[in-house]
Amino acid sequence: MEEQLNETPIPFSQLLKEIEIKDKSTAYVLIEANPPDIPYIMEELAKIENVKSADVVTGIYDIIIFLEGEDQNEIGKVVIRDIHGIKGVKKATTCMVVKI
To answer: Which of 3, 17, 94, 96 fits a 20 to 30 Å CA distance from 26?
Structure first.
């Protein structure tokens, strides 16, 4: 004889209750650059996977970048390893996005 199961399905929200959902870290990086090198810098930034957008701007900064990474450490590594190493980047100021 077949045994019937009287269990009701577990709601999806209940399944996710035990799982920690982690948001990615994001940051804006404000670049001071040598003006003649800006086109080259923009080309190099386009090659960096974590760079989601980069815009040339007026004012005290020359380029503003929006970065995404798994955590703050990844953001820091990208800025130090990839962005500071681009010829023509004089200074990079990182502004981490916080959730309030």
So the answer is: 17
